[in-house]
Design goal:
mainly beta, 2 domains
């Protein structure tokens, strides 16, 4: 949905997403719009110029003249920065979601993303001898529970002006999250580690849209261990009052494990040697990769974080 300025008149251009059009086309009377969301993805509030010499009427002129995107139907691209209404007038900070770039959730330093190793061969070529341990930022996509590396994101108020030991207000606490990933490439898996398991504990998506984007919904204390509270004293990227954290692993899809087709159609040949545990490496010409993202969104605030991931397969 977008607002188009047409000679002083405000025109509302609203379209259904592909999924919305599909449900409407079912024609069974079940399609009803009960909720909607607004976003301001196009707006750069840094353009507000309170020092403009022409006066206060010009402070926000550059913002008001910012072109607004025309409405489009892709579900993953339609809104990233959703607006929300809060009745309280005493808030100085709003909660954010930040990637936890430490310990077992550290980004891969070579590529500044998370490498999801697609099959057993790729995993074995990078892990240490006689161990299931991979270096930081390398996830075991073949059997995620055999790897200790995962992805974690923290939610809370990211400010030094409030104590990190303070309890975040209940109305600012995210207790439910959407996770979205390209279903052709991988699945969301449990954050637990069990080196003796021979199968991956993957979750079932709530929905898969026409663009093959799978949506998972996880709730605090839902027995999945994906959403948990950040305990007092725990390390966190959030500098102020902490809320919840989202932890998970990624399992590569069966197509990525058993075939190179998607790597050929969607991916690229490696250009940099991948460094693994100890002296383990995979030469640049010996693997293909597909770059993608996994999106983490808070249900209450709509705050969204896109995490870069790279699926890798030795060929």
């Amino acid at each position: 949905m977008g607002f188009l300025d047409n000679s002083g008149d405000i025109i509302l251009d609203a379209v259904l997403t592909d999924l919305g059009r599909k449900r409407l086309a079912e024609g069974n009377g079940s399609f009803k719009v009960s909720k909607f969301a607004l976003a301001d993805d196009e707006i750069d509030y840094g353009l507000y110029d309170k020092n403009n010499t022409s006066g206060s009427a010009y402070y926000d002129l550059n913002i008001l003249q910012t072109p607004v995107l025309e409405a489009f139907t892709n579900n993953m691209s339609s809104m990233k920065s959703r607006l929300l209404s809060i009745a309280r007038n005493d808030l100085l900070y709003l909660p954010v979601i930040k990637l936890f770039n430490e310990d077992s959730s550290t980004l891969n330093s070579q590529f500044n993303n998370y490498l999801v190793l697609a099959d057993e061969t790729t995993v074995n070529d990078l892990k240490g001898s006689g161990t299931n341990t991979l270096i930081n930022g390398q996830l075991n996509g073949d059997i995620p529970q055999q790897g200790s590396k995962l992805i974690r994101a923290d939610q809370g108020l990211d400010t030094l002006e409030l104590s990190s030991n303070s309890i975040i207000s209940q109305d600012l606490l995210e207790t439910q999250y959407f996770l979205q990933i390209d279903n052709r490439l991988g699945f969301v898996a449990s954050p637990t580690t069990n080196a003796n398991t021979n199968s991956s504990l993957s979750f079932t998506p709530t929905a898969i849209d026409d663009d093959n984007i799978a949506t998972y919904i996880f709730t605090l204390n839902d027995d999945s261990d994906v959403v948990t509270r950040i305990a007092e004293g725990d390390a966190s990227q959030i500098q102020g009052p902490r809320g919840t954290k989202v932890s998970f692993k990624i399992a590569s899809s069966l197509d990525l494990k058993t075939s190179t087709y998607l790597f050929t159609q969607l991916g690229s040949l490696g250009t940099t040697t991948i460094t693994g545990q100890g002296s383990k490496t995979i030469a640049a010409a010996s693997y293909r990769f597909i770059d993608s993202t996994i999106r983490i969104s808070g249900v209450s605030t709509g705050y969204t974080l896109d995490v870069p991931i790279r699926f890798v397969k030795k060929v």
